[in-house]
Specification:
Elements (H helix, E strand, L loop, with lengths): L6 H7 L1 E3 H25 L4 H24 L10 E3 L4 H6 L12 H25 L4 H31 L2
Antiparallel strand pairs: 1-2
Helix pairs in contact: 2-3, 3-6, 5-6
Length: 167
């Protein structure tokens, strides 16, 4: 181990302020909302309804993060350092939308969406374990559960699509 790279330094390198984490999460949720909204515009039923529902839920998640970041009783907490999960890079990768394909097939769209939901579920679950008990932890734990439910809905659509076209 090099001088200056002790445990404290490594921990600091793997930490972000709660405000930075909330900003990243807001970017993730905004991107998810935009992705699902665009998907709904170019999809047919039943994928269209699912995409509209997911867009509305991601928009609600964005608002929850925004409200949490701006709460007066949490102003002193947003500057605190939090250990970022090991999968943070995977979550951050999904903050940017992929280049849209002019005519994506439903299967590839659903695979991408399931990956987004899996990354979000893992990220929020890990963050819930890292922050102190209270409203921030409760929000991350609740969002991890929400993202798991989203992924489950996407998986149902995916298996319907795959097995109905391969019969």
């Amino acid at each position: 181990m090099k001088h200056g790279e002790g445990n404290g330094y490594q921990q600091l390198k793997r930490s972000k302020t709660l405000e930075e984490i909330l900003e990243t999460a807001m970017g993730f949720e905004r991107t998810a909302r935009d992705y699902y909204s665009a998907l709904a515009e170019r999809s047919k039923q039943p994928l269209k309804s699912l995409a509209e529902e997911l867009a509305a839920e991601e928009s609600r998640h964005y608002e929850l993060f925004r409200e949490l970041r701006n709460r007066d009783d949490l102003k002193d907490k947003v500057g605190e350092l939090v250990q970022i999960p090991a999968n943070d890079h995977k979550f951050s990768d999904y903050v940017q939308l992929p280049e849209p394909d002019a005519h994506p097939d439903d299967q590839s769209v659903l695979q991408y969406a399931m990956g987004r939901e899996q990354a979000a579920m893992e990220q929020y679950g890990a963050l819930a374990e890292e922050v102190e008990p209270g409203p921030v932890r409760d929000l991350f734990a609740w969002l991890a559960k929400e993202e798991l439910e989203h992924k489950g809905e996407l998986e149902k659509q995916y298996y319907k699509l795959v097995y109905s076209t391969n019969v």
